[in-house]
Amino acid sequence: MKPNQNSLSRRLLFSIGTILFVTQGTTIFWLLHEEQEIIVRNLHRASKLNVPVESLGWFNWEIVGALFFPALLAFLLSLFVSGIAIKRIISPLYKLTTQLQQRHVEQWQPFDDDGSSREVTAITHALNLLMQKLQLAFSRERQFTSDVSHELRTPIAGIRLNLELLEQQSPQEIMPLIARLDSMQRTIDQLLTMARLEQKMVMGLQTPVDLVNDVILPAQNEFRELLQARGLAVQLFLPDSAYVVGDKTLLSLLLRNLVENSSRYADSNTSLTISLAEQPDGLHLSVRDIGNGVDETHIAALTDAFQRFDQRGSGIGLGLNIVARICALHHAKLQIKNHNEPHGLIVDIVFSAANKKG
């Protein structure tokens, strides 16, 4: 809502106040006009009876007061009663607004209809119909991802088997193809995991997860092996524990994608840094590499599916897209930026206070 935008209740109250002001003002002026004849007769009678005219001044003001103050009181009382009535009339809209604001991503339950008015009922039914259409669209998307992933696993497994047989004849040519197939297989497995767990997250089946002891430390040996194969080391800067509400498998998948993505583009003989730190805006999970970084004009598009701005590595451009989707499911903020001391890229996941537990 715009800061200078008036609410519906204020506009209604202003309209009613304007109507009351005009009608009450018109009534007062009309009665004053009618009372002028009485005032003139009083002045004429006073002149005949030799009554000082000044003594009639209070009488004339009493007439004005008798007309003005009751009208003012009626005006203020009418505004007060109108304000209460307007508040009661539009309260269902406020309730509906609150329900909308409290909805999370992919929360499809229908909105409650209190039946207070036909207009509110029509809005509620329209919103529920929209929610049904959105739910159907998202369900079809998840089903499509699952179906495609299942259909791809079998031919990829067959191709890999044939390549392993050919590897005996020309290993130098076949090994890169096998590595590329393995990368595709991992991506398909990740998509299957996402399709399976997204529904679980949507249903609200999240649990407290310790990012330190449930996610990062259990994977540190895997990360060390991966990074050592690429001439890299890993540094951990972690507290004793750091809890968020979410899904352990998805959070592990998020971290694995961040590490794999950073390891592809980091300079050899450097370190990859994984850190957790509490800051005013929330809990920050950061993965930082040392390398060439990313062109600033490309950062906003890094999370797009199948988007690759650097052809090093065997990825297909889904790693950061999967990270972004997991962040959305956990209501976390994804920040990607270059750093200069030393030069490289830092990916920051911010879990707000609403995501934290413990």
TrEMBL record:
Among SMART domains, the record links this protein to: HATPase_c (SM00387), HisKA (SM00388)
GO CC annotation = plasma membrane
**Keyword Flavoprotein: yes or no?**
no
**Which PANTHER family would you find in this protein's record?**
SENSOR HISTIDINE KINASE YKOH, SENSOR PROTEIN BASS
Could you tell me which Pfam families the record lists for this protein? HATPase_c, HisKA
SUPFAM superfamilies cross-referenced by the UniProt entry: ATPase domain of HSP90 chaperone/DNA topoisomerase II/histidine kinase, Homodimeric domain of signal transducing histidine kinase
This protein is called histidine kinase
Q: Which organism is it from?
A: Tolumonas auensis (strain DSM 9187 / NBRC 110442 / TA 4)
Substrates-to-products reaction catalysed? ATP + protein L-histidine = ADP + protein N-phospho-L-histidine
List residues of the Histidine kinase domain.
147-355
Extract the InterPro entries matched here.
Answer: HATPase_C_sf, HATPase_dom, His_kinase_dom, HisK_dim/P_dom, HisK_dim/P_sf, TCS_sensor_his_kinase
Q: Does the keyword Translocase apply?
A: no
UniProt GO MF annotations: phosphorelay sensor kinase activity
EC top class, in one word? Answer: transferase
The catalytic activity of this protein is classed by the Enzyme Commission as: 2.7.13.3
Q: Which taxonomic lineage does the organism of this UniProt entry have?
A: Bacteria, Pseudomonadati, Pseudomonadota, Gammaproteobacteria, Aeromonadales
Task: Cite the Gene3D superfamilies for this sequence.
Answer: 1.10.287.130, Histidine kinase-like ATPase, C-terminal domain
